[in-house]
Amino acid sequence: MGNHVAAVETDPQQLEQAYGFWQNFKSFMVAGVVGVTVLLSLMAIFLV
User: Fold this and answer.
1) CA separation (Å) from 20 to 2, 7, 24, 37?
2) DSSP letters for 11-41
3) Any transmembrane segments, and where (predicted)?
């Protein structure tokens, strides 16, 4: 991953790959936030 900056010479395939990775990352983050929220809600219900 050392020459990652050098590889960003607008190669369409590279750009597409990065975009796909970003989409996956975003959906993963959303899923994580939702999961934590649900978990906290369940814990609150059980504690009360």
Assistant:
1) 21, 17, 6, 26
2) -HHHHHHHHHHHHHHHHHHHHHHHHHHHHHH
3) 28-47
